[in-house]
Amino acid sequence: MFFSNIIGQDSVKQKLLQEIKENRIAHAQLFCGPEGCGKLALALAYAQYLLCEHPTDGDACGQCPSCKQAAKLEHPDLHFVFPVVKKSTTTVSDDFVKDWREAVLANPYMNLEEWMNAMGDERQPSIYTAESENITRKLSLKSFEGGYKIMIIWLPEKMQTECANKLLKILEEPPAKTLFLLVSEHPEQMLPTITSRTQRVDIPALSPDDIQKALMQNFGMEEGVARGIALSSGGSYQRARQEMSTNDDRKFYFDMFVLIMRLSYMRKAKEMKQWSEAMASKGKEKQKNFLEYAQHMLRESFINNFHKKELNTMNNEESNFAIKFSPFINERNIIGLMHELSEAQIHIMQNVNPKIVFFDFALKMTVLIKT
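Now predict its structure.
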């Protein structure tokens, strides 16, 4: 992965390159940012640059043996840890490394849901305790090429507490020329004892212009279509790719959103309970994505009240619905509505019973929608 391959993020790239140039490389860095912003891609490009035998001022050379190995994610001094599904008490990332390489090479902007699909398992993955011993063992060995040993940990918030605690010492006092790159979407879910041992690198969401340019360059998309997808992507290239490839999920989220808003307005408790059970039957990632979509629709409906079409990012079906729905979303209830969706999202991520979460949300809508 080259810095030149990464969409946008020019200021972050320059910051990383400047720190290398000034020999100010922190031994443990925490790359934080929302889904689809390119934080994993940045970590990979950063790692390849450090492993490159003949780097230029702005990128790895791409020609040396180290670059060729790193480009395939097969460099002997480049290691990966990521969430996996448990198959035994000794399950570690290495058991899935072939699938991981294929998935990342196909899409370095992938999210957890896409990785779960690549594993072919709907169970929630974790970074298990056995991983800590594997990490310590790998980093205790000498570097194969005599340079850096780099450990990229993707989604460290999925790390079990016991595993995290066992890594505290090596994070604080790593072997010489050892670099940890932790790539996180939710650093607030990590142990403070881990985050306090890292240097944080904040990576913002991508701009619509950067996403539009990437869609047009990478997929030959027409400008108008690319612009519409970029505006509705929420700064996530991953979300833009998903929207480009299929509208099935978005259609499902739209239908479920419309249904629960109508049922809540009419206060049909029995049907609301059935809706809650239907949502609870979906996987956690789909539940989380629905709640994100619901926030998007409420935000768009509120903005629609200002009659500024250029500010909206809805498709035609959503826009037609918003014409009649947006008058119910106003200054008196928008904050409360968004708060309840955010709370529901947190509870889903904390494994609270989804039937209770969604029915509670639906009941609260009956009050807020008429405020």
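The two ends are 51 Å apart (CA to CA).
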